[in-house]
Amino acid sequence: MRGLIEDDYVTEEGEFVINIGPQHPSTHGVLHLKVWLDGETVKKVQPHLGFIHRSIEKMSESLSYRNFIFATSRMDYLAAHINNEACALTVEKGLQLEVPDRAKYIRTILAELTRLQSHLLWWGCTGLDLGAVTPFFYAFREREFIMEIMEETCGARLTQNFMVPGGVMYDIHPNFQKRTKEVLTQIKGKFQEYDDIMTGNVIFENRTKGVGFLSKEDAISYGVTGPTARASGVSCDIRKLIPYSAYNQVQFDEILGTGGDCYARYMIRMHEMKQSVSIIEQLIDNIPEGDFQTKTKNVIKLPKGEFYQRVETPRGELGVFIVSDGAASPYRIKYRSPGFSNLSALPLMAKGGKIGDLVAIMSTIDLVIPDIDR
Amino acid sequence: MRILLTYSFSSFANYIHHLLAELITNPMLLHVTEMVILGVSLIAFLVVLCFFLGYMERKVAAFMEIRLGPNRVGPKGSMQIVADTLKLLLKEGLTPDSADKFLFNLAPVIMVIASMMVIAPIAFAKDFQLYDINIGVLYVSAVSSLGVIGILMAGWSSNNKYSLLGAMRSGAQIVSYELSVGLSLISIVVLSGSLSLGDIVRSQENGWWIIKGHIPVMISFVIFVIASTAEINRAPFDMAEAEQELTGGFHTEYAGMKFAMFLLSEYINLFMVSAIAATLFLGGWMPFHIGGLDGFNHIMDFIPSSVWFFSKTFLIIFIIMQFRWTFPRLRVDQLLTLEWKYLLPISMINVILVTIMAIMGWHF
Amino acid sequence: MNIEELKSSISAILPSAIYDETGEFLNVNIASEELYPLINELRSNSEFDFDYLFCLTCIDWKDHLMMVYHLLSKTHQHTIVLKAKISNRENAEIETVFNIWRTAELLEREVFDLFGVKFINHPDLRRLFLSDDWNGYPLRKDYVDENMISL
User: Fold this and answer.
1) What is the pLDDT of residues B200-229, one digit of tens each?
2) For chain B, what are the domain ranges?
3) Chains C and B lie in contact, requiring 3 or more CB pairs less than 8 Å apart
4) By CB neighbour count within 10 A (0-12 exposed, 13-18 middle, 19+ buried), where does A97 fall?
5) Nearest to A50 among C55, C130, C133 (CB)
6) A50: which chain C residues are within 8 Å (Cβ-Cβ)?
7) Which end of chain B has fewer surrounding CB within 10 Å, N or C?
C-alpha cells in the first residue's frame, strides 16, 4: 500500500506522532490521520486518503447516462438520494428536459427525508464520539421509521436508486403520504428530548464551545460548504441561492451562525432538521397529479458541451460536472464532493487543541469518507 | 424463614472455627488454614459479585437506551457474563514483542490485588467483618491508591503510544481526585470521632450520618460520589480508556485473561467504592433508625443487616452506572480543572464547616 | 458584473483570451502559461472579487490537457469558468493557485494523482488516492492497466 516516506515522520523536540485510523472507532469511515502531538496538544494533522477510492469517475466513463447515476449512491451513502438527484438534474440540463411537477415534488420530499435521516445519524454519532452512548440509540430509533418509508416507496433503505433522467422511476406508494405524516409527528415530538439530553448538557457545552474555530474568510478560502460554513457566517445554501426541483415553492430559513465553533455547527444542524420537517409538511399534502417521468429515448446522448449542477447535500455543496462529446457515455465526470473541501480545513481547525477536540471537530464536520475518496 | 432472617453469621463462623480446632491442633497452622479459607471464599465471592455486576451493568444500560440487553444466554440472559468470561479465558493472550515482559504481566495482578485488599475492613453485616482495624478509613484510602501503579505499569510496558497517553491521563486523574475523596471521608471521621469502620457504623445507631449531618455531610456525599467515579476510571471520567479516541488506552495491548483481570478490578473497585459510601454516609449494615423512636427502630431491625448493606451498596452502584450512559466524556484538562478549581476548594471549606458543626453540636 | 463587462475587463488584462458562451457560464479559454497573472487579478481586484473556487479539475482531450477552474464571487454573485490549455502532455506543468485559494491544495493533489499535471510551487505535491509507487495516471485516456479486463 502506502510506503513509509522518511520525512513524513519528522518531529521536533518533544513531539511524537500517532496514527488515528484507518481502523478506528470514530473516524466515520476509513480515514488515516497522522497527528503530531506535544503531550496532549495537537501540533499538526495530516489526513491520508484513498483507502476507499473506487475510481467512480473513471468507471462512469464507460457507463451509459442512465447507469452512471447508480454508482453515486455509494459515494455519500447517507445522502444517496440527493447524489442521484444531482446526476439526474445534470443530465436533464444537458438534454434541456422539463421534469413534470409531480416528479419535482416527490424528489424534494425524498431529498428532505434523506437530509433528516442523515442528520439524525450524525446526531447519534456525535454523542457516541463524545462519550454519551445513549443518544445513538435514540437517533437510530427515529431513523428506522424513515428507512421504512424509503423501503416502501423506493425499494431500498440506503441506496435508493430512484432517479431516472426525466423524473423518478416509479410512482410513490399509496401509503407514502399517510406514513410520512405520522413519522413527522413522531419526530417533531422528539426534538425537545434531543435538546434535553445533549444540547443543554454542561459537559457537552464545555466540549464543543470554543473548539475548532473556523473564520469566515478561511471557510470561503478552503471551500468549506454546508452547515460547517454556515456556522462561520457564510451564506451558501444552494437550495436558496439557485433553487432546483421544488425548492422555489417552499418557505424555509437559512440559518447562519456566528460562533464558527463546534457548538455553532451542532446548533445549525439541529435547526436544519426542524427546517426539513417544515419543508416536508409544506409539500406532502400538495403533490400535484400528473406524470412521474418524462419519457426519454432509451439510449440517451447528451449534446457536445459541459454541464454543471450544484445541489445541497447534508454535508455541503455537491457539484456534478459532465463533459460530453456526443457519445452515449460521459467523456469526463467530475464530482465536486463537499467532504473533500471540508476535510481540507480540518488541520487548520484542530491545530492547537487537544485530542479530544480533534474527535469533536471530526464529528461536527460530519465526514463521510466514501464521499471524499469516491 | 424467620430463623433464616435472624441468622447471625458470627455463629456460623464460630462453628467452623470449632470444627477446625478439633482437626488441627497446632495453633499457627489453624490460624493459617482459617486465613486461607477466608481468602479463597472472599475471592470467590468477589468473582461471583463481578458476574452479577457485569450483568447488572448491561441490563441497566439497555434499560436506559430503550432496548432489551442480553436475553438469550441463560434465563433472561443471566449466563451472559459466564459466556463472556469463558471467551476471555480461551483467547490467546498476546504479549507484544517489544513490551517489557515482566511489568506487562505484573500490571493486571497488581491492579487486582490492590482492588481486593480493600475488602478487609468492610462490614457486610452485623459482626461480619474480616478485620476491624482501628485505622480502617486510612487503610482503605491508602490501599485503593495502589491501583494507579498498575495502570501506569500497564501503559508504560505496552510500548504503545496510545497506552502511554491513556496511562498518563489516568495517573494524573487518580492522583488528583484522591484529595477530594480523602477530604470527604475526613468529614465523617470528624463527626464520628473514629477511623475504624466498625465504630463509624455503630455511631449511626440513632440515624445515618447523611441525615444527622444534614447539609455539610450531603455535600460531602455528593463530592465523594463524583470523585470516586473519577477514581475508578468510569465515565464520564473514563478518559484513560476512551474508546473513541484512544482505542483502549492503557489496556489496548492486553487480551484474554489479563484483560479480564482489568475488568475484574474495575468492577471490584466499583463495588468497594459504593460499599465505603454506604458504610460511611448511609449507615452500612445499620437499619434506618430515627433517634428516639424505639418502636420504629425495633421494626426496622427485623430486616437483616446484610440486606440493608447490600441494598444501600447497590443503590449507589446503580447511580454510578447511570452516570456512564447519560453524560458525554470530559476532556482531560476539563477533568483536572473540575478537581483542582472546583471540588477541592469546596471540599476544604466543607471540612471546616463540618468541624464547626461537630464542635458546636449542630448535628442531630 | 454582467457578461459583457466581464469580457471587456478580462480582455483588458489578457487580450488573448477566447470566450465561449454556449454553456451556462462564461468560459474563458487561455493558455496554461498565462494562468497565474490573470487568476491573481481575478481574486485580488475587488471589482471581480472571485473569492470562491468551487471546482478544479482537468479534462484529457487526447492531444492536450485542459485545466478547468470554476470561480464564483460571493459579493457580486457572478460565475466564470477559466480553462487553461496545457499542450505538452509529457511534461504537463502549470502554476499552483494554492496561495490564492487554500482549497486548491487537495484538489491539485488529486489532479496530479490522476492526470499527472505538475503544479509549480505547490507545498506538498504527492499522490492523494493511489499508493506512492503506482505507475501511470489513470484518468488519462491513454492509460493502460495490465490488470484491466475489457468485456
Assistant:
1) 888 888 878 888 878 888 999 999 999 999
2) 9-90, 93-360
3) no
4) middle
5) C130
6) 127-131
7) N
